[in-house]
């Protein structure tokens, strides 16, 4: 069976976490965050563990001595890294996938789910690898801005906090159908 590759783009990372965790468990895929280099850099700057910063720290929390929030620092770092090298995050993600596939995780997992896809270049890279790009929208999200264009073959999923479990089940069913369709075509 062909390895599964799912890319997640979401305008809000917080509500997407539970969906990503459910998808990773459902498809037995390893989760790799395209944002991991940023998470590690910010953890070093703030003297925080990456897991603590990612899951329990408010993005509005100020970075001591810099006077900007963690979210603003992340955006600034990402912009500058992409300015220096447009495929910086793609290269790091591809390296993580290669290490995962060549080690024990390659036998343990059926593939990968890549979160934190924020640019057209990153989304196209995932599509070029044969991955399924999923645009995860949140019905109750305050910001309707979504940085990426929806392309033919992408999957659009909307999750409302009031009906999250039903919509997550529908999302999993949609992704399963699309993956099965891709496997039959291959």
Plain-language structure description:
There is one protein chain. The protein has 186 residues and is of the alpha/beta class. The protein is built from 8 helices and 5 strands. It has helices at 13-27, 36-46, 50-55, 70-84, 88-102, 104-108, 120-128, 164-185; strands at residues 4-9, 30-33, 111-115, 132-138, 155-159. It has a 5-stranded parallel β-sheet with strand order 2-3-1-4-5, sandwiched between helices. It is globular.
As laid out across the biggest beta sheet, the strand order is 2-3-1-4-5
Uncertain runs are none
Q: Count every beta strand, where a strand is a DSSP E run of 2 or more residues.
A: 5
Rg on CA atoms, Å:
17 Å
Taken in chain order, the helices and strands follow as EHEHHHHHEHEEH
Percent of sequence in beta strands? 5-15%
Average pLDDT figure = 81
Q: Features of this protein?
A:
single chain; 186 residues; alpha/beta; 5-stranded parallel β-sheet; 8 helices; 5 strands; globular
At a glance:
With 186 residues, this protein is α/β, with parallel strands linked by helices. It contains eight helices and five strands; from the N terminus they run βαβαααααβαββα.
How are the secondary structure elements laid out?
Blueprint: E1 4-9, H1 13-27, E2 30-33, H2 36-46, H3 50-55, H4 70-84, H5 88-102, H6 104-108, E3 111-115, H7 120-128, E4 132-138, E5 155-159, H8 164-185
Parallel strand pairs: 1-3, 1-4, 2-3, 4-5
């Amino acid at each position: 069976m062909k390895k599964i590759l799912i890319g997640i783009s979401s305008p809000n990372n917080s509500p997407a976490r539970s969906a990503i965790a459910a998808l990773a468990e459902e498809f037995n895929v390893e989760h790799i965050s395209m944002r991991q280099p940023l998470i590690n850099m910010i953890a070093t700057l703030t003297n925080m563990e990456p897991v603590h910063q990612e899951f329990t720290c408010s993005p509005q929390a100020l970075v001591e001595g810099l006077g900007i929030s963690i979210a603003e620092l992340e955006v600034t770092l990402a912009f500058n890294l992409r300015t220096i090298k447009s495929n910086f995050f793609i290269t790091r993600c591809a390296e993580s996938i290669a290490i995962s596939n060549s080690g024990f995780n390659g036998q343990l997992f059926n593939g990968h789910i890549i979160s934190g896809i924020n640019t057209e270049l990153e989304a196209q890279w995932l599509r070029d690898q044969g991955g399924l790009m999923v645009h995860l929208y949140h019905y109750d999200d305050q910001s309707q801005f979504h940085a990426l264009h929806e392309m033919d073959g992408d999957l659009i999923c909307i999750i409302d906090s009031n009906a999250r479990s039903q919509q997550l089940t529908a999302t999993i069913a949609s992704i399963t159908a699309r993956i099965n369709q891709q496997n039959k075509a291959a």
